[in-house]
């Protein structure tokens, strides 16, 4: 089950997507889009896309980006969130009313005037920060295979997300200047791909190349047949190999025919040097010679 979580100093907010089932041994494209509110009091909208389709939206608070990042983990358990358990204290009636008003984010004035979406509005579950392990369990690393990872500094639109899904799992944005996704490369903050990993280092393929990562797992790369053929020299290197395979097959067939003509009793001995005889073939056909094992004259003429 996919769960998107945001942790602040006081709250741990989650949005779950239980209705989407991810099939084993099948590639899926997951897009998590945070759209900032356009108005001063507007709420940040979370949109979850799976395989190019919008499944759920929610008004989830997005953490502040004014401070620089010190750590970013993708697919790993990561560091423990430095928060403490907040013990609830008795509140007055006035304080309780204020807290209830702050939790009713979906009823705010800018949200009520927002354009309707096709995806259902998700429920945001909020618990005190520091109690997430008791609710969700201890954090663990991703148990599966992770393909290309891209982080954009701008929210992408649905047509762009559909193009990303249609590109497939073996798409590299930054090295295709003539491709349809070349415009998105200017919005990249970082981009990792297994093909750019070596010695546990993941090169950042974004245009600025600022955030090289460190791989803590194993990297597995599957190459296309055409890419593997290009590494060995292309068709110019493959055709001579095919010619050798065809020639070797003709030689084996010719050797079997010559064995039937001479007789099995003369070819029973092993590891005997052979000589080439045309046996009715033209002398100019030197590419497929007939091989006949050489025998001593005593084996041919009886005493």
UniProtKB/TrEMBL annotation:
Question: Can the keyword Cell division be found in this entry's annotation?
Answer: no
Region Disordered, annotated ranges: 250-303
Q: Which domain of life is it from?
A: Eukaryota
Q: Which Gene Ontology biological process is one annotated for this entry? A: intracellular protein localization
Signal peptide coordinates: none
The molecular function terms of the Gene Ontology recorded here are:
protein kinase binding
Keyword set, alphabetical order: WD repeat
GO CC term, one of those recorded: cytosol
Protein's name in the database: Neurobeachin-like protein 2
The organism is Callorhinchus milii (Ghost shark)
């Amino acid at each position: 089950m996919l769960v998107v979580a945001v942790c602040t100093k006081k709250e741990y907010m989650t949005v779950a997507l239980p209705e989407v089932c991810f099939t084993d041994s099948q590639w899926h494209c997951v897009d998590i889009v945070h759209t900032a509110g356009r108005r001063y009091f507007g709420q940040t909208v979370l949109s979850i896309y799976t395989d190019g389709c919008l499944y759920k939206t929610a008004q989830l608070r997005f953490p502040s980006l004014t401070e620089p990042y010190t750590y970013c983990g993708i697919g790993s358990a990561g560091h423990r969130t430095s928060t403490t358990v907040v013990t609830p204290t008795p509140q007055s009636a006035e304080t309780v009313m204020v807290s209830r008003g702050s939790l009713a984010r979906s009823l705010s004035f800018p949200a009520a005037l927002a354009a309707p979406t096709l995806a259902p509005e998700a429920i945001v579950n909020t618990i005190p920060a520091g109690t997430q392990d008791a609710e969700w369990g201890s954090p663990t690393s991703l148990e599966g295979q992770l393909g290309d990872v891209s982080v954009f500094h701008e929210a992408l639109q649905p047509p762009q997300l559909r193009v990303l899904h249609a590109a497939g799992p073996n798409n590299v944005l930054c090295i295709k200047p003539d491709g349809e996704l070349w415009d998105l490369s200017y919005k990249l903050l970082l981009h990792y791909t297994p093909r750019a990993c070596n010695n546990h280092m993941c090169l950042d393929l974004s245009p600025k190349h600022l955030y090289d990562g460190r791989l803590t797992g194993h990297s597995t790369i599957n190459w296309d047949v055409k890419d593997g053929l290009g590494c060995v020299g292309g068709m110019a290197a493959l055709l001579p190999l095919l010619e050798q395979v065809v020639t070797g097959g003709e030689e084996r067939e010719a050797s079997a025919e010559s064995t039937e003509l001479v007789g099995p009793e003369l070819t029973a001995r092993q590891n005997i040097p052979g000589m080439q005889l045309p046996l009715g073939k033209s002398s100019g056909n030197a590419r497929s010679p007939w091989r006949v094992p050489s025998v001593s004259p005593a084996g041919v003429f009886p005493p």
